[in-house]
Amino acid sequence: METNFTLAIIKPNAVRTGKTGPILSMINESGFEISAMKMVRLTRSQAERFYAVHTGKPFFETLVDFMSSGPIVVMVLRKENAVELFRNLMGPTDPQKASPGTIRHSFGVSVQMNAVHGSDSVENAHREASFFFSETERYP
């Protein structure tokens, strides 16, 4: 299984407030190659399927509502140890706990509206990338 990529999402609040460019700059400056990227708007049903692992959790409904509230930017990022290194660049889920220099510290406003999503494992990177991109789009 290929391990040098991850899926990244710029969330609706960050897209809506014009943070896409600065976030992409941080990603590029950190040495990631963006090998696939598109802007999409998830339907509620698509958001439910993407976040199915959280079904039944207290935050599931608000997460689905939020992620289907506006456009998102989805990307396949490539770099050795991409999952771990992108998670480090994102910072903790709670922007208040994130260190300066991380995306969530710079652009997140709450645990839910924390600007970005990144795959949490190699297995999930494969699953999540295939949700948004065909195999030929993911592996140019």
Report on this model:
- 42% of the residues lie in helices and 17% in strands.
- With 140 residues, it is of the alpha+beta class.
- It has a single domain, classed as Alpha-Beta Plaits, CATH 3.30.70.141.
- It has a 4-stranded antiparallel sheet.
- The two termini are 16 Å apart.
- 34% of the residues are buried.
- The model has no long low-confidence stretch (mean pLDDT 95).
| Helix content estimate | 40-55%
The share of residues in extended strands comes to 15-25%
Overall structural domain count: 1
Shape: globular
Average predicted confidence as pLDDT? 95
- Spans where pLDDT lies below 50 across 5 or more residues: none
| Distance from first to last alpha carbon | 16 Å
- Alpha carbon gyration radius: 14 Å
The CATH homologous superfamily is termed Nucleoside diphosphate kinase-like domain
Structural class: alpha+beta
Number of helices: 8
Spatial strand order of the main sheet: 2-3-1-4
CATH class: Alpha Beta
Topology summary:
Elements: E1 5-10, H1 12-16, H2 20-29, E2 33-40, H3 44-50, H4 60-67, E3 72-78, H5 82-90, H6 103-107, E4 116-118, H7 122-132, H8 135-138
Antiparallel strand pairs: 1-3, 1-4, 2-3
